[in-house]
Amino acid sequence: MKLYSLKNGVNPRRVRIFLAEKRISIPVEEFDMESAGHKQPAFLAKNPLGTLPVLELDDGTLISESVAICRYFEEMIPEPPLFGRSSLERAQVEMWNRRMELELLLPTIDVFIHTNPFWIGKRTQIAAWGEQRRKVLVERMGWLDRELAGREFIGIDRYNIADITAQVALLTARGALKLAIPEDHANLTRWWNAVSSRPTARA
């Protein structure tokens, strides 16, 4: 078994944190954006989309997409449960994880791609779209701050994959976008400090 990952990649970080929470250690082959080895024919034979992460099982089976990889390990090693314990909890986690993808992660990635100099010549940049998405991201931080009133974690009462998705989104916003959580967002700040202090936070 081997995990193909990407240095500083947002979705690969989701998987790394998930595996760390599960205390799972597997071999990792890491690519980087500069050399773009994941865009070369050898890797495209494994994933024609050229995206990471990708999990290769011992029998050669390939699983791509970060949440699919996390689900595989959840089934293999149920404890601690990061997708919920009951049918209701699993539905709630699914709902909230999807919200974190759509409302936080995608705007973060859009701002990065469309406004950061790193992407000049690599992707078509539309600066106005990037700035619009920045406004959406700031607004969604306010929304999540309100949702976290009286809640320790996102969606259910335990740390779960929705927390991981929000965590990597806001970590990228802080680092790549220089966009920190506003000081008056007390609930979101409390949650951020808690998840950031977990031993797995920098996996």
Short description:
With 203 residues, the protein is an alpha+beta fold. It has seven helices and four strands.
Topology:
Elements: E1 2-6, H1 10-22, E2 28-31, H2 41-44, E3 54-56, E4 62-64, H3 66-76, H4 87-115, H5 127-147, H6 161-176, H7 186-196
Parallel strand pairs: 1-2
Antiparallel strand pairs: 1-3, 3-4
Which bin fits the share of residues in helices?
40-55%
* Total strands: 4
State the major sheet.
4 strands, mixed
Shape: globular
Query: What's the total helix number?
Result: 7
Average of the residue pLDDT scores? 96
Global structural class: alpha+beta
Strand-residue proportion:
5-15%
Low-confidence stretches: none
Distance between the termini: 19 Å
Strand order of the largest sheet: 2-1-3-4
Secondary-structure element order, as H and E? EHEHEEHHHHH
Q: Supply Rg.
A: 17 Å
Structure description:
The protein has 203 residues and is an alpha+beta fold. Helices cover 52% and strands 7% of the residues. Strand 1 (2-6), helix 1 (10-22) and strand 2 (28-31) form a beta-alpha-beta unit. Helix 1 (10-22) packs parallel to helix 3 (66-76) and helix 4 (87-115) runs parallel beside helix 6 (161-176). The protein is globular and about 50 Å long.
Structural descriptors:
203 residues; four-stranded mixed beta sheet; globular
